[in-house]
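Side project, low priority. Logging it here so it doesn't get lost.
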Amino acid sequence: RPSTQSQYLVQASPWAHYFTSFSGIRDTAVTAQYADGQTQRVYQLKGPKTLTEFTLTVPFDPTVHYDVVDFWKNSGCDFLSLTVTPVTCGEDPQPLGTRTIIVPDAQMTSLNFGTVDRTSGNPSTIEITFVGDSFTFN
């Protein structure tokens, strides 16, 4: 049975807190076209794959998420591990099955936080963008 988008726990090491939104995995192959010089057909080839950037978002709590900002300010080329685990529905979510999405080699490429609109009641968010080279779903 399919799970809802809310039935996932999203974490990124080294932080202990969870994120509420994950943009998902998009793994795309490069393609190229060529003609054989004889027919009126253009052929296509599939090339290497690229894992596109992905984003984590959570309502921003300055007393909790300062560690994300500090990491961004102090990191060079540090790698993080991202884990997205399907869980059961309810107040005490448990892992659903045995498979988890893991991006073991993620690097932060962007940090967005501190957006203010004094006329709004919407929560302020912190958004982090990453790149990675590989993922598993084991």
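Brief comment: Strands lie at 8-13, 18-19, 21-22, 27-35, 42-51, 54-59, 80-86, 101-113, 125-131, 136-137.
Revisit when time allows.
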